Structures are given as structure tokens and as C-alpha cells.
Input
Amino acid sequence: MSQSPEIRDQTRIACAASGEFQGWLAQAGGSLAITTYQAGKVAMVGWNGRQVTLLMREFDKPLGLAVCGGRLALATRHDLWIFANAPLLARDYLEDSPGRYDGLYLPRVTFHTGAVHTHDVAFQGDDLLLVNTRFSCLARLSRDHSFTPVWRPKFVSDLVPEDRCHLNGVVVQDGGPKYVTALGTTDTAGGWRENKAAGGVLIDVETDEIVVRGMSMPHSPRWYDGRLWVLNSGMGELLIVDPSTGESTSVCGLPGYLRGLCFVGPYALVGMSKIRETHIFGGLPIQERARKLLCGVAVIDLRSGLLAGMLEFTSGCEELYDVQFLPGIRQPMILNMEKPAVRLAITSPDSSFWLRASAEIREAEGPMAEAGRNRVAPLPAKDQDGEMQTRGDLLPDSGTQF
Output
């Protein structure tokens, strides 16, 4: 896989597609956004009509992702980013390769929350709901404060920065928060760590009641197709939960610590991670069940519970946090604030422009000048800092079996 200077000086990140992953992505009608806080990257996985492609963009400890229409929300170490897709500018992002990208996510708003350890994020209409893990609460963004708390578990007695239960995931249903996951029901600083292998819970926010107990570090609760889904991460299981009875059914088991879940038609995309260190993640059931843990995204056929395909990170990346599907976008591009191009991309409700030298309208153009004011001008083949965009073609099918 070709590498840009952005990551050549770091550990090489390599991927391999196995099973039907390439065929699935080719017909899925979209692409993937994946966060890896361990490698400090947001990965964009696309399809160029011939093969799977990979673009890695650097962010500071990226965690939760949320998608709503053309907007993308991203939680990082100290900030919450909101991006907006600029499809008219995407096509001409690279002048010598027009049409390579059909989606361009530009940063539009950044909230400086501080180190509140935001995990999952979810759109709630035009608002955003955050899982504020350090303060053990659900919160909203604020123009005046680091956050505005909206709910905390009834067993947490105070709003303090002590990560008392490791609240991490949220489901928004019918316009409001409905279910959350936590790694314990403890009310002391970091108290959840003592029973992390079996102390996890799924909580109904509206009733404050615990729906499921005894889970192993659960993450990524989701409501899809009229059912409640959750990752029993420390067991490596995708579960369906009946919230009326608390009974759970295992859909499948995977060889990884699971975080990140989204759905595309009859398929579930599940993020898998290795376990790098044992202080937090040691002693989990998945380490006994699986001979070898993998890092990647598994595509599960929900009709059979079988693995349809997989994108595996074979080097340079060992832990994922979230995965989201970007419908209708085959080749996405995302920019951070270090890219000069982000300051040259201008959009309004009626038009889009690249503020490039090639887009300048001169008086000599005469009557044609006015018509040119609505055109989209291309970027050169390279970013302003001379760096080519990371676009690594995946290795051949690895034939990974597990």
C-alpha cells in the first residue's frame, strides 16, 4: 500500500480484505468511516470501481462518530468536531484526477469541551448528545461551558471527573436518549475496573432501570430494524436484547474486543480490536475464547449470523473505536485543520468555490466573468504543503480464517 509523508515516519498501517468484503463494498452504495484512537487516525474506506481504497487522516485521539445526512460528528481528545459534506467541491479536489472523490467532509464547527473523555456521540435532531465518560453522564454541547449535563445513572451520586462507571454508549430513539451502556454500577473513582469482566450493564434512560446485568465491558448500543443491539465487547459477541425481558441472544462471536457498530441493509458492521495492554483490558473472556485477536471491521450477514467478509488491519493499527457507513458516497475525503485546502473551500447554500489561483476571475474575461462566479474551480494535484493524499490500495485477499 502506498503511504503519504503523513504516515511514512510512523508505524506503517497496512490492511487486507478477505471473504466477500470487496464484493460487499462494491454493491453497498457507500463507504466507511472508522476511528482508531490508538493510531490517531480517521480511516475512510472507499470503492473506486475496481478495488477498495484507504485514506487515513490524522486527528488527536478520535473516538465516537455520528452521521446525519451530510453531516459527520467526531469526538476527539479535547474537542467535538462537526463536518459537512461539500460534494460539489469533492469532484475537483485533485485537478489531475477529477472525479476521484465524490464526498468532501469539511470542518465547520468545533466545540472545545476539554478532556471529558467523550465516547459515543449521537445526533438528536439538530443537536448532539455526548456520552461524557469522565463525568459519568449524558451531555449536550454548550456555547458557554465545556458541556451541559442532561442525565446520569441513579447510582452515580455526584457530577465529578472520576469516571465512576465508564458510561460509554447511547441509543437515541424517538427524539431522545433511550438506552446507555456502562462498564459498572459503581459510585467511586474508577470503581468499575474491579469487576470489568462481568460488571457491565445496559440501562433504560427513561426509567433509570437496568435492563441487562452481568455483561463484559459492553459498548455501542444501537436501535435498528425494530430491535435493540449491543456489543458484549469482552466476550466478543454481537447481541440482540429484548428490553421488555432483559433476555439477550447472541448473533455471532468474533475474535476481537468489539467496539463500533452500524448497519447496512441486512448486514452489521462490527469493529474488532486487539488488546494492547492488560491494565484495563486484561482478564477478559475473549482472551480465552479466541486463539488470536484481530483488528478490523467484520461484515456480518444478519440473516445467517455468518461472517460475509472482513477488512483487517494487519499492521500499524491495533484498536478501533467506532465505525459508520456513509451512504451514497463511494470515495470520501476528510480534511483536518492542518490541510491548507480547508481554508480555500468555500460553500454557501447556493454555490461552492475553490479559492485557487486557477479560479480567479479577471477583468479581461469580459462578459464571461459573471457566469464564472458560480463555477467550481479545481485544486492542484497536491495539497498546498506538497503532500499527496493517502490513497492506499488494499493487499490481495488474505484468506484469513478463524
Observations:
- Residues 1-9, 366-402 have pLDDT under 50 and may be disordered.
- Helices lie at 5-8, 21-28, 87-90, 278-281, 286-289, 368-372.
